[in-house]
Amino acid sequence: MCSLRRVQLDYLLTEEQIMIRDLCRQIAKEKIEPRAAELDKSEKFPKEIIADMAKSDLFGIFIPEEYGGIGVGVLNLCIATEEFSRVCGGIAVSYAASALGTFPIILYGNDAQKKKYLPDLASGKKIAAFGLTEPSAGSDASNLQTTAKKEGEHYILNGVKHFITNGGDAETYTVIAMTDKNKGARGASAFIVEKGTPGFTFGKKEEKMGIRASSTRELIFSDCKIPKENLIAKEGMGFIVTMKTFDMSRPGVAAQAVGIAQGALDLAVKYSKERIQFGKTISSFQGLQWMLADMATQTEAARALVYSVARMVDAGKTNVGKESAMAKLFASDTAMRVATDAVQIFGGYGYMRDYPVEKFMRDAKITQIYEGTNQIQRNIIGLQVIKEMAK
Predict the structure, then answer these.
(1) What digits encode the pLDDT tens for the residues 98-114?
(2) Which of 122, 138, 175, 359 is least crowded, fewest Cβ atoms below 10 Å from its Cβ?
(3) What CATH class does 243-389 carry?
(4) Distance in angstroms (rounded) separating the CA atoms of residues 307 and 323
(5) Residues 272, 344: contact at Cβ < 8 Å?
């Protein structure tokens, strides 16, 4: 993360939110930046950095006070994720993915479940993951093959989850499985599964193009026996739990994208003021200034949209599927565009691993894919727009 002094629009952040931003910026500078390249290369999960985040109470900023957090706040989560992503998208998503795994419990867990699981998640003693995607069920989340069969006081889970962020390193998993295949999407249910449960194992750690510091593994369930008390909400609610979870979590992915875009822009501006061509810094060339102008404008527009949607969620607005999809779509497309332009500004050096900007381009790509591809986001937005116009 370069030391540019960035003038940011006034988003009317509270004192608490400014403190969160400044704290996360400090952690990014002191803890993440020195190790970002190393962890990207080694693909090692950032346990020590996650522990530093936990010591700073950053896992509690989106969890209610009564369960050990400091208050539900999707905007808080977005602010933290953005700051971490300005340095390393992989480390940032390791943090944000715990929120994704926690949201189903916050939204639909009963009081006993919240008291049992949320305090450890709020303290960072444990982190969470969300198990939805399968080899044959990516964008088509209704085509799940993992099953949960009730037998007496327990459910028996069988199946495989694919591409799960924090897989293997998280201790608490919220998993979507079919309790009645005959009902299609209405036959899906949500469960809490603890690491170490007999019959619950992990596949190999995936080798990825970007966000390489994060862990991505298969979750394998083979006659995995969990108590019936681990059912979230009730049978048949799994798809609703998933969609409402994404409404809360997609602004977080969008914030990751904003952070990646900002980090790439920071590097491009700094380099443009140092690189000499034709006897001048390349920042003096109008063509490059226009590139930087577009990159900065697009990044700020994405940030404004993300913060606005996060505030809607925090205000208790329930029907935010369209807006969350818009934030994720626009911010991730912006991240890819800005990171690509940043590499272009660096020229040949931008293509070399010795310079950090190529990592931002690799990290940006996944934000257009996970938690619903951007084609799926356009489906969500388009259908809702048509529905609203029909009223």
Answers:
(1) 999 999 999 999 999 99
(2) 138
(3) mainly alpha
(4) 11
(5) no
- Percent of the chain, pLDDT > 70? 97
CATH code, 129-238: 2.40.110.10
Strand partners, 158: 147
Phi, psi (rounded to 5 degrees) for 176: -100, 125
Catalytic residue among 134, 171, 218, 371: 371
Q: Is 16 a catalytic residue?
A: no
Closest CA to 176 of 188, 162, 164: 188
* Tokens standing for residue 355: 């310079």
* Count of Cβ atoms closer than 10 Å to residue 35 Cβ: 18
Q: What is the number of other CB atoms lying within 10 angstroms of the CB of residue 109?
A: 24
Nearest to 67 by CA among 101, 104, 103, 106: 106
15-127 CATH: 1.10.540.10
Give residue 218's pLDDT band: very low, low, confident or very high (50, 70, 90). Answer: very high
pTM confidence score = 0.95
Using CA atoms, how far residue 194 sits from 162, 172, 190, in Å, is 17, 5, 13
Q: What is the pLDDT of residue 48?
A: 97
Q: Residues near 323 by Cβ (< 8 Å), separated by ≥ 6? A: 308, 309, 312
Q: What is the DSSP annotation of 221-254?
A: EEEEEEEGGGEESSTT-HHHHHHHHHHHHHHHHH
**CA neighbor of 359 nearest in space, from 371, 372, 346:** 346
Q: Where are the domains of the chain?
A: 15-127, 129-238, 243-389
pLDDT greater than 80 at residue 286: yes
C-alpha triplet 242, 50, 168: angle, nearest 5°: 55
Q: How many CB atoms lie within 10 A of CB 386?
A: 9
